Amino acid sequence: MEAATGKKKKTKKKRKDVESRVRKGTWKAEEDQVLLKHVEQYGPREWSSIRSKGLLQRTGKSCRLRWVNKLQPNLKTGCKFTEEEERVVIELQARYGNKWARIAAHLTGRTDNDVKNFWSSRQKRLARILCTTSCSSSPASASAYGNLISLPEVTSIHFFLSSFSSKQLIVNLIQ
Prior knowledge:
By secondary structure, the chain is mainly alpha-helical. The protein has helices at residues 2-20, 29-42, 47-52, 60-71, 83-96, 100-104, 112-134, 151-156, 158-162, 166-174. It starts with a helix and ends with a helix. It is found in: Nucleus. Residues 19-71, 80-123 form the Myb-like domain.
């Protein structure tokens, strides 16, 4: 029985040694170059082989996420969603719900995180707009967070909002 316990301790120690060799944190430019060279040679797959070949001390998951979110050449980072992209997100979110990766697959150059952040910002912006137009006459209903309406109110009008782009909705509310 003691031998089995001793063996478990060695296994735990061995696992800890392996984990300590995994690099975490900020990526260096040299690491990005190694990853780009790997993708150029093998394509965007076999992420775990990067570590097993001794190219990087990063996990396969970390390498895949770095490629998907930062290094892909067709990424649209820092630019606003077009009206067409907005329409696609609204349509697909109504169909699939909050399946951001599935929605992002329909948008060239957009990551699931981009889509999720866009959706979240859009919902907050629309809630603020709705509240400022409907809550302006009753200051008691305004919240401490800049006249935001409550989440249940937002979700109950979600179906209505889905049929409009942000710009169309703002124009309709102002008129």
